[in-house]
Amino acid sequence: MTTLHLIFNQAGLNACLRVRAVDEPVILMGNAVYHHAQTEGLKALHEDCALRGVTTADVVTREELVDLTVAHCPIVSWAN
Predict the structure, then answer these.
(1) Which positions ≥6 away from 11 have C-beta within 8 Å?
(2) Which of 11-25, 30-44, 57-71 bottoms out in mean pLDDT, i.e. has the lowest?
(3) Contacts of residue 39, Cβ cutoff 8 Å, sequence gap at least 6
(4) Does residue 27 contact residue 3 with C-beta atoms inside 8 Å?
(5) Residue 42 to residues 12, 37, 39, Cα–Cα distance (Å)
(6) Contact 50, 34 (CB under 8 A)
(7) How far is residue 24's CA from residue 46's CA, in Å, rounded to a whole number?
(8) 3-class state of residue 5 by DSSP
């Protein structure tokens, strides 16, 4: 299995992007959704985008996030 990366802020995103493999999924959550345009291939949590007025086509729902957590190991939270 590959690692799932959950990003919560800019510092976490910067740290994650230095070490993650290209094929590992990255989900922006909380205030990290403001950085969705910074790097291609990142997805943002739909509910957090909606709460913050951020528009992006690359979103996942909470249900899809649950499926991703089941399908990946380990799961790393980045909130430096």
Answers:
(1) 78, 79, 80
(2) 30-44
(3) 13, 17, 26
(4) no
(5) 13, 8, 6
(6) no
(7) 19
(8) strand
Nearest to 39 by CA among 53, 25, 50: 25
**Angle ∠(49,11,7) on CA atoms, nearest 5:** 40
Helix (H) or strand (E) holding 2: none
> Which ranges in the chain belong to alpha helices (H)?
10-19, 46-52, 62-71
Residue 37 clears pLDDT 80, i.e. is over it: no
Neighbours of 6 (CB within 10 A): 22
CB 48 within 8 A of CB 64: no
- 80 has pLDDT over 90: no
